[in-house]
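Just scan my protein:

. . .
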Amino acid sequence: MSKNIILTNQEIEHKIKRIAYQIFETFVDEEEIVIAGITSNGFSFANKIAEVLLTISPLKVSLCEVHINKHQPETIVKTSLTKEEYSNKGLVLVDDVLNSGTTLIYAVRHFLDVPLKKFKTAVLVDRNHKKYPVKADFKGISLSTSSLDNVEVVFNENGENYAYLC
């Protein structure tokens, strides 16, 4: 299996910073926002966005991990924060890759049970193969690929991050 790099570490860092600024501009009137990352890579991406937000803005940022079974997304979605902790706040739901939209739409549905001031979505890679009417408000890159292609994002602990097409 060959790896066609579509985003290098430097490009990912640039996109994280750009998305963080876009989030700050969108939520500039808020005192606090919640960055909710979908388990694994989505949460890693959310954490990186939150770190930048804390350095560029006065916003109080709460991180939330969204536990969803990507193979059976209709099962119960759990979050690391209680509903009371994100109720009546601005929230950004984050994932690494938006492919069919299945994971994102079920995660969005979970948060619709609670009143939010503003609700946005962010992804690093938008694949444009949606089967649900869901979109990313903030995205690093839009990529038109064949539905047979797969996009993987790697967030290494040593800071070497990259995305590739396989």
Summary: DSSP finds four helices and nine strands in the chain. The beta strands are 4-7, 32-38, 60-67, 78-79, 90-98, 118-126, 138-142, 151-155, 161-165. The mean pLDDT is 92. The longest helix spans residues 9-26.
